[in-house]
Design goal:
Radius of gyration: 19 Å
Strand order of the largest sheet: 1-7-6-4-5
Number of helices: 10
Strand content: 15-25%
Bound molecules: oxa(dethia)-CoA
Helix content: 25-40%
Number of domains: 2
Shape: globular
CATH superfamily of the largest domain: Thiolase/Chalcone synthase
Length: 332
């Protein structure tokens, strides 16, 4: 590891999950499914639904949680990045709305669209800005209101998703052995047909027909995505371990995207990691897309399960396809 290199380190965290809970029993009433099927096939028991606002409002709550627990002045934030695929509107960006709502008037802002890899992709961008000296205090939020694009008549998808937001602050550090150490990212656009929202964009602008044909919801070929998600997430996690000479002994936690417990288990198995070393909250929140990874990190930090110097591997797979891994050493 090089000495005296400036790295981006997480110096504050915050999270928000809505109060309203939809459990598996609820879905038994609205679609042809069972608690048993959902639990064994996905690991999900409950998910949260945000009824009182948009994605930026959840992001605001995650930031408020951060500001309540850490000494962060919104006016000192110079950059805001929001990973989301459920922006409040096509434009302006959700990050601009967040900036306005939290009074971060000195920040420039943009969104990153990488679906379930939104947080990991944003880390790569954020890390580059911090390491190059362009940003000193960067607010990075993963937020998705998946209930806005879930079809609650389609049992294949509606049981999977929930709403949440979580935030981290990234600042430069020259301390050795801390911060974001490495990132590996991939995309494969040939996967666009397996996971997408078919209408509302320039390809198929919203019309009566697109609404009638239910084209404004998440479409997923679950089986096809499952196959590539298992290999994609496990391969890149093992790749970043090998690149950084890490064994399973060295790693405190794997922080996997929470899409399916079976994908998480397969990834951990490939990394030869014990169950206790895998951050899990899919049973409580389901798949919250760009929020899953920062939500895990915030929750484990709040539960005092993380300590300074812990080596974490973050890994995700999502629409695009987009996937990747981050190796970081915990700094709080
Ligand atoms: O986060 C972004 C990336 N996304 C992912 O990583 C998700 C990847 N995919 C998955 O997690 C899984 O494919 C699902 C959980 C979505 C589905 O599980 P599966 O084991 O792949 O099931 P399947 O799609 O192969 O369906 C098996 C059967 C089908 O019935 P038939 O055709 O065998 O009669 C489905 O119709 O299960 C049926 N099914 C259900 N049954 C009860 C699908 N959804 C349900 C349901 N309840 N909710």
């Amino acid at each position: 590891m090089e000495n005296n290199k400036i790295r981006a380190a997480i110096t504050a965290v915050g999270m928000f999950v809505p109060e309203k809970v939809l459990d598996n029993k609820y879905f038994e009433k609205i679609v042809d499914t069972t608690d048993e099927w959902i639990t064994t096939r996905t690991g999900i028991k409950e998910r949260r639904i945000f009824e009182h606002g948009a994605t930026s409002d959840m992001a605001v709550e995650a930031c408020k949680d951060m500001f309540a627990n850490f000494n962060v002045n919104p006016e000192e934030i110079d950059t805001i990045v929001v990973g989301t695929i459920t922006p409040d509107m096509f434009f302006p960006s959700t990050s601009c709305l967040l900036q306005y709502k939290i009074g971060a008037k000195n920040a420039w802002c943009f969104d990153v669209s990488a679906a379930c890899s939104g947080f990991i992709y944003s880390i790569q961008v954020a890390r580059s800005l911090v390491e190059s000296g362009k940003s000193k205090k960067l607010l990075l939020v993963g937020a998705d209101k998946m209930s806005a694009i879930a079809d609650y008549t389609d049992r294949n998808t509606c049981i999977l998703f929930g709403d949440a937001a979580a935030a981290v602050l990234l600042e430069p550090t020259s301390e050795e052995n801390t911060g974001i150490i490495d990132t590996i990212l991939y995309s494969d656009g040939s996967g666009h047909e397996a996971l997408n929202m078919k209408a509302g964009g320039s390809l198929r602008p919203s019309s009566i027909e697109t609404v009638q044909n239910k084209m404004h919801y998440v479409y997923q070929d679950g089986k096809a995505v499952f196959k590539v998600a298992v290999s994609g997430m496990a391969d890149v996690a093992v790749e970043i371990m090998q690149k950084n000479n890490l064994t399973s002994e060295d790693i405190a936690y794997l922080v996997p995207h929470q899409a399916n417990m079976r994908i998480i288990n397969a990834t951990a198995e490939r990394m030869k990691l014990a169950k206790e070393k895998v951050m899990i909250n899919i049973h409580k929140y389901g798949n919250t897309t760009a929020a899953t990874i920062p939500l895990c990190i915030s929750e484990y930090y709040k539960d005092k399960k993380l300590k300074k110097g812990d080596k974490l591997i973050l890994t995700s797979f999502g629409a695009g396809f987009t996937w990747g891994s981050v190796y970081l050493i915990w700094s709080l």
